[in-house]
Amino acid sequence: MRGSTRRLVAAAAAATCLVAAAPAPAQAHGNDKYTKVAYFTQWGIYGRDFQLADVQSSGAAARLTHLNYAFGPVTADGVCASADPWADWQTPFSAENSVDGVADVAGQPISGNLNQIAELKKKNPRLKALISLGGWTGSAHFSDAVLTDASRKKLVSSCIDLWIKGNLTGLPGGVGAGIFDGVDLDWEWPGSAGNDGNVIRPEDKQNFTLLLAEFRAQLDKLGRQNKKKYLLTAFLPAAPAKIEAGFEVKKIFKYLDFGTVQGYDFHGSWELRANQQSALRVPAGAPDNPDFSVDSTINAWIAGGAPRKELVLGVPYYGQGWTGVTGGRNGLFGPATGPAPGVFAAGSEDFKTLQKLPAQGFQVHRDLRNGHAWLYDGNTFWTYDDPAVVFQKSLYIRAKGLGGAMMWSLDGDDANASLTKAISAGLR
């Protein structure tokens, strides 16, 4: 083992120990030199039983600068809507599941996740909350909605009215005002394929820029009225072909406060070969050329003209897995028969579950030079990020001069927020 590798292992181990002793929430933000933004999924309160109260009690909230609430879809009518009003502003939470420890009561102005976000912000005054629009299954109608100047104005106005001004359907006007501090655009993807059925046009590339300009104009107008700075961010793809097809890189950062860059899903169980999904660099012996990695993705955005400080690196809180894996290097690059079984979906598993596998016969393997880890038991293979890997990525963010880290998503972390604490330790 080389000296630099030994130092990295020692530093990662030390960071894991340090983050276990959490500072008081009021102190944990530090000077917020780096952005630390994480997604909270609307549907996580159901089968996953992951609540915003868990974000607070685990210590994660104290270490974040931004919370993205996912997702608000764009409808076929070209307006913003709620995918689940019950989760967003109707469902009552018990004292146990409430951020402030007080049960919701009948007749209070607003309930649901939005009220819990408001409570989370009260306990963490420097935390900003953004509504994330679109997502993998909510991006089908973006292309239609941004086709003309009039349609863009209509879409942006509806989004601001619903989510920023807080005019929530069925509740008194403005009751949700002040909960969200801005908008995060998750159009997956302008000008190129995303989920089956998405509308795609070549002109999406220019229209995405025009959509950002419209959001920036309307948010700034409202901000002048409210004496408040509203944020505008976007989720950006890893693949160079998708960057080229959908983004005028030098133009979009005139309007964005920052962009979160996809640093995962480089490979997955849709392929029949075990591989890395989120490596810092392409591993030696990789069968695909060219291949995806964090560094190649970040370099593509920088080469296109993106400001380094406005690039926020995405980190996965889940792994991709295969079964029937034979050969390769301890499974890496070995052929597979199909996706590994997962709790919620085949081929995908939360970090909190994967971290228990070494006690069940899996061995942890690391490629420290190229920044990735995997689990293998001779048959099943999982590529994932653990605290040592995300700490290494934090060091990469610092060395590369990037703006910070984004995490998808908080429900994948363990009850101690081990991944979030490791990222925070690296980005002090």
TrEMBL record:
Keywords: Carbohydrate metabolism, Chitin degradation, Glycosidase, Hydrolase, Polysaccharide degradation, Signal. GO terms for biological process: carbohydrate metabolic process; chitin catabolic process. Belongs to the glycosyl hydrolase 18 family. GO terms for molecular function: chitin binding; endochitinase activity. PROSITE patterns: GH18_1, GH18_2, TAT. Its EC number is 3.2.1.14. The keyword Transmembrane does not apply. It holds the Pfam family Glyco_hydro_18. It is an enzyme of class 3 (hydrolase). This is chitinase. The keyword Hydrolase applies. SMART domains: Glyco_18 (SM00636). Residues 1-28 form the signal peptide. Residues 34-428 form the GH18 domain. InterPro entries: Chitinase_II/V-like_cat (IPR011583), Chitinase_insertion_sf (IPR029070), GH (IPR017853), Glyco_hydro18_cat (IPR001223), Glyco_hydro_18_chit_AS (IPR001579), Glycosyl_Hydrlase_18 (IPR050314), TAT_signal (IPR006311). The lineage of its organism: Bacteria, Bacillati, Actinomycetota, Actinomycetes, Micromonosporales. It catalyses: Random endo-hydrolysis of N-acetyl-beta-D-glucosaminide (1->4)-beta-linkages in chitin and chitodextrins. It comes from Actinoplanes philippinensis. It comes from the Bacteria.
